[in-house]
Amino acid sequence: MNGPVETLLKRLIFFEKTQPTAVYIQIAQQIINAIQRGYLIEGTVLPGTRKFGELLSINRNTAVAVYEELASQGWVDIVPNKGTFVLLPEKRTATIKATTHGIDHVRDYPKKAGFPFQSSINLASTQEFSNCTYSVNDGQPDLRLHPTHQFSRWYSASMKRTGLISKWNRAGEPSYNFGKYLSNYLNATRGFHITPNNIMSTRSTEMSLYIVSQLLIKPNDIVLVADLSHFESNMIFQQAGATVKTIPVDAHGINVDFIKTHFTKGNIRCVYVCAHRHYPTTVTLSAERRLKLLQLAKAYKFAIIEDDYDYDFQFEGSAMQPMASSDAYGMVIYLGKLGQSLFPSFQIGFVVAPEYIINEAKNYLQILDKQGDLIQKQMLSELIAEGEIHRLIKKNSTVYKQRLDYLCDCLKKYFKTKMVWQKPSGGLAIWLHFTPRISLIKLAEKAKHYDLLLPKTILYHDKNTCAIRFGFGHLNEEEIKEVIKKLQQAYNDIVD
Domain HTH gntR-type, which positions (predicted)? Predict the structure, then answer.
């Protein structure tokens, strides 16, 4: 039976005779690795050369060569008639670079905790990983349009601003300065009349919604969402303990009258709505229903969470102003994004709400992200002041409109009457209905055979719906054509 040292050596040493490095060198490097990591401590007696050879199934002469190599480097001391002892040479600071097979498994970190904890069923990841060359998402921008070289210069210039460190050390001042630029920008572009006291910037709209949900929702509070709604938002509400209930949605947005006829005053905590372009169908909440919803919120005393996730990209006509811009009673909490034409690390989320709400929300924010990113905010402030944000949005919107037009042409060519869609006035996704209905799960499975990923999160299939939220923003025209052709091949496979 092997002792502890022999068992350890057998587990961590691995060698290949086909490698150009000699076997005795491979083994010696891995023993050095174990000594450096503390698995073999000073004074440890290594097995004799005969035993060592049998342990690793190597020739005894190879075992002798291993020990001689270790001794020549000062890692072991070979004492005649006594044994081979591990040393820790002085000033031995060489990098641990030996290749090993079992070193990381010698003392495996436990997979299970030794104490109970509460797991969440609401926050399970919805991401799908695939090796497919092509994929469709729910409407994300094309990162290739980001002006990388310009931003590297702008970011570098922001880092070199005098007084940056002193500003960073003065709590509150950096955020307030950025708040002035951001509030001015929103006042000019979205019809607001706000000050920095009405706004809070976050890392993302998901963080914004998480903070708002922690602020508003208590266990079993009723949150109303559209019957087709954003899955990530629903996860956040459920994690906060809310009871999520649905409202019908049609070509004019959510059915506000349904709220009035099915719920009583004081029974609703908040209503979540994407008023500008409903997720996932892309329809706009009509002006009449907006007014009804604002009046109902005041009468029933519930909050409206207005998620304006893709306001920037408007292709036809003028973008409809947010409900929050005409909210005279403080019933609306507005969530938005800044920098969707930029690389993700430069994008931010923000919350617009009455001052008392913002003050309380910032108490939650300082727990999650007290430090923030001053360089990012300073750079964005300058991009707003110089009008660069507006120019980027306008430039990229032109590209996205061309892609949407081309997508509609491809759909007409390859699907004709098999799909029905309404061309959206903006945004980076289109809502595709299949007629007649098909199995979308089978379609996604077949698409993978053609090197195309259709994530389950963009598939909407129930007794009333058979549709895909098809995001096109990340695809250029050549890629759009290829994706639609592959989608047609998968479609033909399941209907033939």
Answer: 21-89
> What span, in angstroms and rounded, lies between the C-alpha atoms of 61 and 67?
10
Burial string for 169-208 (b: 16+ CB within 10 Å, else e) reads eeeeebbebbbebbbbbbeeebebebebebbbbbbebebb
Other Cβ atoms within 10 Å of 247 Cβ, number: 21
CA quadruple 350, 321, 253, 303: dihedral sign: positive
Residues 6+ apart with CB under 8 A from 463: none
For residue 164, what pLDDT is reported?
A: 64
Q: Identify the structural domains of the chain with CATH numbers, from first to last.
A: 4-105 (1.10.10.10), 134-142+392-495 (3.90.1150.10), 164-386 (3.40.640.10)
- Series of mean pLDDT values for 10-residue runs along the chain (496 residues): 80 84 90 86 90 90 92 90 83 52 57 79 74 92 85 76 63 66 93 94 93 95 94 92 95 94 94 94 94 95 94 87 91 92 83 96 90 81 88 92 96 93 94 94 95 94 92 96 96 90
Task: Tell me the C-alpha distance between 426 and 283, whole Å.
Answer: 10
Q: For the chain, how many helices (H) and strands (E)?
A: 16, 18
Token readout for 156 is 């570098």
Give the single-character DSSP code of 47.
P
In one letter, which amino acid is 170? R
Q: How many residues are listed for the chain in this entry?
A: 496
Predicted local confidence at residue 176, as pLDDT: 55
SS3 track for 132-198: CCEECECCCCCHHHCCHHHHHHHHHHHHCCCCHHHHHHCCCHHHHHHHHHHHHHHHHHHCCCCCHHH
